[in-house]
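User: Can you write out an input/output pair for a complex, sequences first and structure second?

Assistant: Here is one pair. Inputs:
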Amino acid sequence: MSQDERRIVDPALLRGLTMPRITRRAALRGAGVAGMSALLAACGVKGTTKSAPPPDQAKLFWDKQVKAGVLNFANWPAYIDTDPVNGKTSLQRFTDATGIKVNYKEVIQDNDSFLGKITPSLRAGQDTGWDLMVITNGGSIEKLIRQNFLQQLDLSRLPNFNKYASAQFKNPSYDPGNKHTVAWQAGITGIGYNPKLTGREITTFEDLFDPKFKGRVGMFGDNVDLPNFTMVGMGIKPETSTVEDWRRAADKLKQQRDSGILRKYIDNAQEIQGLESGDLWASMAYSGDIFQINAELEKAGKAGEIKFVIPKEGAMLWTDNMCIPLKAKHPLDALTYMDYVYQPSIAAQLAAFIEYITPVQEAAKLEMQRQIPTASRDQKDTLEAAVKDPLIFPTEADLARTHRYRVLTLAEEKVWNSIFEPIVQS
Amino acid sequence: MRRTAPYLLALPGVLWLAVFFVVPIAMTLSVSLQTGNVEQGFQFTWHFANYSDAMSRYHAQFVRSIVYGVIVTGVTFLLAYPMAYWIAFHGGRRKSVYLFLILLPFFVSFVIRTVAWQFILSDNGILLGLLKKLHLLGQGFHVLATSYAVIGGLTYNYLPFMVLPLFVSLERIDPTLVEAANDLYASRVRAFLRVVFPLSIPGVFAGVLLTFVPVVADYVSASILGGTNTTMIGNVIQTLYLTNNDYPLASALSFVLMAVLIAGVLLYARVLGTARVYEVASG
């Protein structure tokens, strides 16, 4: 090859020989990577918050509704009367009075996991399968209201509520004007225990950390009751607690868990079952559950022996709220029920059985006192006990020892979860 | 037509996998790299820190799941092999009856069966209560809420997954091969080790996979029978997805779990030699 010939080599060929070529495979690979990135980026998950409905939506909505005769009601375990009084339970009375059949299901074990299940439907704008559900304040009900997941109520259609609900249950801070919710019951998270098994009365939060009860103590495995109750037990006000306080509470819980004193983190059903079977000697518990556990024990021929205590450090006070999820199939039936349970006689029947703080304080007490002279002997005992029961009609002094849950912003919730979730998920 | 027919036959399966496997996997991968919260939405930001967060918070549960998986697979194997062997070689006419008995628990829901164990093992329940009354056990003794309960529950629930493949491979072994080995002066132990066991390797391979993979990801047994320090990675993922709605962290954990399982399975196949498995399987 001569000099001249070499010079006349096509520059394109030279470039092709010396520089890396983009092969078809590489081009495809490049396109693949770019396409994959685009695909991954396209998979962003939309937020769940719905836009707020126009202000007159509620009235228009309710004007259009007709009674369906069916009500799908999601509630917590041991949260309704199951023994008939004068031949009927409150649910049967409701069906008799209105012709609405109630499909009553105890499907809520804790707020977060129930909301986790129905949120995808709410977000997609679909029916959740429930017409009425009972959700606690202190984070959960606030979340539903904030995201506009609840049907607005029309208070003019709730005459019993307007007439009989106690002042402290009207216009709550988390739902001003009762726009979306009315209270079902309120209650206290304290300690339930079996004196026969513990061998002594339980009086303080520290009793839950006693090595003598190794493997016999239960704590709620949720992200609300457990941290808040622990802080109260440590003398920290949950309402004003700091991240540092949360860490201290988590350390305290970790020690209880790793030393084996704690048997298990439990949900509502496991609390009831554990205290009933004796697997748990002392446990965080909801105030009314104890009464029903004892009723069950009595039925089984064992003496009523479980006790409930507000530890001397204090306890949690919460309100459970009836609400109607958006796109519910039978909203008018749900609204009818909401109002029905505010009748004093029904509220009294319910409260005397489930032993939670009734939202119809004054009228239900009067109703109970009115019924006592004519009641059957069993019912008379029940009512006389109920009228004096601080778990149904708490005094100012009792309520002064209770605290409300810490309400978290979204940013705080992330930190809170990262501190408490690894404790529960051990 | 003859040339396209195989593709057409494969098409429904391929479409099924594309829609219900590839798409969800791509979604999960994407979500695992996102940031945000459930109310305002998640954005894709290449947030690899989700992976390090997930592992630093939940490595203990991860390791525990794998340890449980190994123990449960080992125990089910030790229980299932003699069972399958006996049914295959000595089951006689009632073989199908025995198999049916092994499958019988499947007619009851998985969760119900596990809850039944919770009832049986309860501290003062029908079993422990009786033993305590007879003073064979101390009052403080309990099985529930321990890792024994979780491992026991898992072993019980997954035993059939081990028995069935073992039975299938043992059943296909020609008994005359064993006779031949005996004729050639092999002892019974030697005949088993050199003839029967090697021929059952495909069943062992399938049984181990069918048990190990779902056991590692199981969350029912730990949540019903377990207590503290028995939480498995499946429980964590479930809570993160359904309770906390922390989709990125949950996706990252799911992805790591999947990767670890695939790597483990590949390693296992390599050690056992898939080529040999196919060879034996195809006779």
